[in-house]
Specification:
ubl conjugation pathway; Ubiquitin Conjugating Enzyme; cell division; DNA damage; mitosis; alpha+beta; cell cycle; 10 helices
């Protein structure tokens, strides 16, 4: 799809009163068609050159409509001198003329019904889509691919947008809505009415109009990417790409279903983990993730020593081990609490949640004694560059040493920060007679 560009949103106050209410309704329901992107209203202008913003008499503007992975532009022209008259429309695609006498919302135009423009634009885009299908009939292979799509279960005309650019060198585009039933598989994540529009889209590009070979790209909402643990760069194997488009779509739907079922299974295990731990630590809970069950924060005490424990579940839980982050409430370094992350304690994905709880609590009780002793002992920096680990222990004497430590870090990492993962576990040390101790 076309890349998003920062555009200044229209100030509806500059529009003529009889135009403004129509535009406000359009912007309140800005999704027309399949694309997850919103309709934009740009460049409001008056019919007369003596334009004064305070008069608010702009009666024409540009609408940008996401369609088939591209943007279709249309000039909408109202008449300030005739508020009762319906608007005119001029499309950027010169091959398409709005069939005014066939658009019901225009034939029954009532300026007092503020949803009039919204209804008209939806009807116009349906006619535009029909025009694109007619253009597609000129290409045998592509027309065949389009007709084959209707062999898919539950597929209908509303599930596809087609764009055949006037330039024969430009690729033909299919934007297809995939019938992935995430609401059924993951009901806890898709409960809101707005989630009805949370469906995957497949953008198919045909570079050669005389061939059915194509390039595909999957589009998922940010929410679905997070839930399924996949991004838009996902691709099926090459041998699947060589098949007909319908076979590719079936394989993709199966893969998405498998991903969703795996996410549902992991989600249930995460919830069981949280239920077990929150029940045990119910008086110690500071906060926890109530939606994805990804992390929780506890305030714990060992005798008179208080500390914060953060439990972070990895994306591949229960296969991956939850990370335990011990945070000091007594010492900080450069404004951040001193912390130690541990993920090599006893754990097995095959254990029951009761067993996981017992072993984790046992480890916490044992490790907190070490953490208490070390809290305030030294500054430890670890550079992990693939398999090479560089460890540097720095004495922590006073705040005056901060700049010196930063200089050492700069020497170790001269301009390769993008390729280096830095884990900083900082602990402090009391000065003894002003002498530094090296570890």
């Amino acid at each position: 799809m076309e890349e998003d560009k920062e555009r200044e949103k229209v100030d509806t106050s500059v529009l003529a009163p009889h135009v403004r209410k129509h535009v406000e309704v359009l912007l309140a329901q800005p999704i027309i068609g399949l694309c997850h992107r919103e309709v934009e209203v740009l460049n409001p202008k008056p019919s007369f050159p003596s334009y004064d913003k305070e008069n608010s008499n702009c009666d024409r503007f540009q609408i940008v409509i996401p369609y088939a992975g591209m943007r279709i532009e249309c000039m909408v022209v109202f008449q300030s001198s005739g508020p009762e008259c319906p608007p005119d429309f001029v499309f950027s695609d010169s091959r398409f003329f709005v069939p005014i006498d066939q658009i019901e919302a225009l034939c029954s135009w009532d300026v007092h019904k503020s949803d009039g423009l919204l209804k008209v634009m939806k009807e116009i885009m349906q006619f535009y889509k029909k025009k694109q299908i007619q253009e597609l009939d000129r290409y045998e292979h592509l027309s065949f691919e389009y007709l084959c799509l209707f062999q898919l279960q539950n597929f209908n005309e509303d599930d596809i947008e087609i764009l055949v650019p006037s330039d024969p060198e430009s690729p033909v585009l299919f934007l297809i809505r995939l019938p992935a039933d995430f609401r059924h598989i993951l009901p806890d994540f898709y409960q809101e009415e707005s989630d009805l529009g949370d469906y995957p889209l497949l953008l198919v590009s045909f570079p050669n109009r005389d061939s059915s070979r194509s390039c595909q790209r999957l589009y998922l909402t940010k929410k679905t990417q997070l839930i399924l643990g996949m991004d838009e760069s996902f691709q099926l194997p090459d041998e699947v790409n060589d098949n007909y488009l319908t076979r590719y779509i079936i394989a993709l739907e199966d893969e998405l279903k498998t991903k969703a079922e795996l996410a549902a299974s992991r989600y249930e295990r995460r919830r069981m983990y949280f239920t077990q731990f929150l029940s045990h630590f119910h008086r110690c809970v500071v906060e926890y993730d109530v939606l994805y069950f990804s992390s929780m924060t506890l305030m714990l005490r060992e005798d008179d020593f208080h500390f914060i424990l953060e439990i972070n579940l990895p994306d591949d839980f229960p296969m991956g081990t939850p990370a335990l982050v011990f945070r000091s409430i007594y010492h900080t370094f450069m404004g951040d609490p001193i912390a130690v992350a541990v993920d090599n304690y006893p754990y097995s994905p095959t254990w029951s949640m009761q067993k996981v709880l017992e072993e984790t609590v046992k480890f916490i009780e044992e490790y907190v004694h070490l953490f208490r002793q070390d809290d305030g002992s030294f500054c430890y920096v670890e550079y992990n560059i693939e398999s090479l680990v560089i460890k540097l222990c720095l004495p922590y004497v006073s705040r005056r040493k901060t700049d010196e430590r930063e200089g050492i870090l700069d020497e170790i990492d001269p301009g390769v920060s993008k390729h280096v993962k830095i884990m900083l576990i900082v602990q402090s040390m009391e000065a003894q007679n002003g002498d530094e101790k090296k570890h």
